[in-house]
Amino acid sequence: MSKILLIEDDEIMPKIVARILPATEYQLDHVSNGKEALLKLEATNFDYDLIITDIMMPYANGFEILSKVKNQSRPIPVIIVSNAGNEDMIMEGFKLGADDFLKKPILPAELLIRVKRLLMKNT
Amino acid sequence: MDTIKTFFEGGVFIYGCMMLLMYAVLAIQSYRGIKLFRKRSSFTDYYQLLESPLTPGISVIAPAFNEGVTIISNVRSLLTLNYTRFEVIIVNDGSTDDTLDKLIHEFQLVEVDFAYNERIKTQPVKRIFKSVNTAYDKLLVIDKVNGKSKADASNAGINAASFDYFLCTDVDCIIERDTLLRMIKPFMAEDYRKVKEVGEPCPECGYVHIEEDSMRVIATGATLRIANSCEVDEGVIVRVRPPEKVLPRFQEMEYIRAYVLGKMGWSMMNSVPNVSGGLGLFDKEIAIKAGGYDHASFAEDMDIITRMNAYMIDNNLKYAIRYIPTTQCWTEGPPNMKVFSRQRTRWGRGLSEIITIHRKILFNPRYKKMGMIVLPYNLFFEFLAPIIEFTGIIYYIYLIATHQVNWLYALILLIFVYLYSVMITTLAVCWDQLTYGYYKTWREVIGLALMAFLEPLIYHPLIVFFALRGYWFFLTGKKTSWGNMQRQGFGKKKT
Amino acid sequence: MALLQLSAFPSTIESIFRNAPLAIQIAMVFIVVAITGTALAYYSILRSRYRGYRRDKKLSVLLPEIDNLIIDEVLTNPDMQQDIPADQVPLNLEPFQRLPLDRPWARQALTDRIIHFRRNVRGNMGNLLRNLYIQLELDKDTMKKMKSRRWEKKVQALVELTSLNMSIADVTILPLTNSRNRELRAAARHAYIKLSKNEPFKFFDVVTDPLLMWDQVELFRIITTTEGIAIPNFARWITYSGNKSVVSFCLKLVVHYNQLAAVPAIIKLLDTRDHYLRADAINCLGKLKVAEAEDQLVRIYTSQPLHCQIEILKAIGRISSGRNIDFLKTEFLHSTDFDLRKSAAKSLVKNEWFAKQVIDELLATSSPENLRILKHCMNPLIKY
């Protein structure tokens, strides 16, 4: 059972992701902005196997979360899912250590494969 | 004596009618504008700007002076604006508190060698900071010697700005997340364009030359509201509420009227007189060519717009200044009489200054709408209104003292003016509700609208008094002891 | 007694009105106008609040229901897991009958929600969502809007059709592409590009009014995201179009698709008299990294206006062939314009691979201001 944190301010996306990643294999927690995300991460002592995050959100953006996560002793793999497909932003994300980037609208199968691959790599 | 009397009475009556007519015109124009805006927003997808490589860049400039208490959350909220290509320039205007230290610590700033091009002269810039953390790479902090004005600090920000457009705001303003998306649109979609092809295809390049008679949008503004009773969480508005205290509540109503009804109406006639200093998006090239903000001005926001207008007309360029009716910015309104009187006196002084400085434009047909409509309107209906009202009252008292009053007619006239002003204000609240259903309950809306009945009796006399005081200070050239506080006219935010 | 007074009231008013001077008469008329206006304003505020409240309440019930149905019937459709093409997947429409689909507002809400879902997922799931839209006959509502007399309804319909990738007959769209209303015209063109089976780029040939920046953003998104659109060689319009904004837009597309075949046309464009267009062409050559154009750019440099010169310096930086280090160095040292020096310095830094020595030398010998510019450009923390 892998623990995944989804940070996303769109109301529909979490529902979709919850269907793509079967509940039998993944435990999915959802928060809807940067502040909640940081609180959640601190409360659980960064105990997640994977983080899926949007970039532009209130309070703290995806990059800030990314930089916090990657500065941990045990870096958690991060997938950015965003509709901002601006090249600069993608580069910036990778510079901060993002492991993957998916542009919305996503292909469900693609998300599933990338999640699996990242989880495999880290176990 | 009788001729003077008739002349005065007739003059005031015509003046009054003109003023009321102006308001009616503005109300109708702004209604048209809001209708059009609503139609457009029924299909406009602002978010496509987020994924486009063609989106223009914007520099967000926010001067800060002794804002240590709130600086971090406010900068954070600026950094999380919904936009892809932008930078946030915080100008620390020689704060004497820990504003800069807090910024350095929180955002991991280091001093950098920055190619600062002083196109507009300002007080010296001491240091420029960037963050070592890529997550904050949109942030640029300028530390400069205090210039005793917001204008000087903004100018330093403009000098350091890298993009073609800049958004000028205050650190203590709270900006709605989609503001940049919404405010950049008028720059990109000004549809007044006449194009004609001229002559045969050019032998050299094969093009039919096109004479483009397009309009350049040089600034956009949006509605501001009072933040006093809104619920704010770390620089983000979570619940909009009309101010509970009476004084800020009057201001909220006044702001709605001035922006939704006034500026929106002017925008439809393409003669916006002013873009608020709290929130305005500008074309950087034109702003710099017009000389930037005037640090000696008491109304630097109106001054720069007037000069940008003049620059465009002097160079025979077609231009527009646009307004959007939605509220994009919440600002702390003066909570008590002391701060309020200081703010309004300053405004009065600023207005007299604008009229005198730009008197060459006034009634100059060369400056088209600017010279023939905008400034004359400001002269007659903004600047002279308090004076005329004041003399009117004196005159009335004289009439009463000499028993010359027809009480019935006086009463009818008073009721007329009173009810008309109530109507205009109520319409403004109504138009505002059409743009977006601000506030949570209908009680809050009605509670605000009902203030219109009290305004002419309580709030308006105060404004007249403070404006006259401002004129007086202007005439006597009184040195104000506000110093750094002048831009700090706002109350400190609770955390 | 009171009743008597009340009935006398209108006549008193009337007599006052008759005997009053004109000013007072006007005032009296306007008192009535003001009272009516205020009352109407209050009525309309309350009405819009009430409607908004009702709408929010209805939607707060309906939307979760819609979401659940879409998730159960579309997203977790068992056939979806087995990669069966969307058009062969039978949809169970029965549960959707639970929704109040006889109501236009509910149908609209469902359409909007389907579009919202499609903004988040594509591929087979996206196609199945589209099938749902068709099978529930929501497209009929959209077509009805197309026929509306109100232009904003037509635009809404066009937006819906494009986001759902519904094909429309050319005869329906083409007349709208020449509409007098700019927004309708633009929306129709966008729809045409996305949905036309024939020649999607045809209107590039005929359009005479400038494409606004806003329209370009929209067009760019449509062109670059539509699947299965045949991308033509944009050199055709760069060479032949008489519409400046079309040429400039095509240059951006050329960069996006890295169409090196268009390079000769762009180089020819350097001779245009329009210096804004020329700047765009230079920018495009730089982004395409066309090293062959570099010498020509350097040659024309001195005769160009400032913004073209800046573009040339930037282009040399982007191409970064290392062949024009001396040129950049001269510009950096001797140009009087701040922006030119900055662009030159930036391009030198981009050519660092070849210009290492020159940069070191400049670092040791430059004036304080130039040194600051150079350090600015070398600092990885500063992007622009």
TrEMBL record, chain A:
Keywords: Phosphoprotein, Two-component regulatory system. GO terms for biological process: phosphorelay signal transduction system. Coiled coil: none annotated. The keyword Phosphoprotein applies. It holds the Pfam family Response_reg. CDD domains: REC (cd00156). This is Response regulator.
